[in-house]
Amino acid sequence: MKSRWVLFVPLAIMGLLFGAFIYRLTVPGETLIQSQWINKPMPLFDLPPATAGVAGLKSSQLADGKPRLVNVFASWCIPCRAEAPQLEALKAAGVPIDGIAIRDRPEDVAQFLNEVGNPFDRIGSDMQSSVQIALGSSGVPETFLIDGKGIIREQIQGVILQEQVPEIIAKLEAMK
Question: How many domains does the chain fold into?
Answer without folding.
Answer: 1
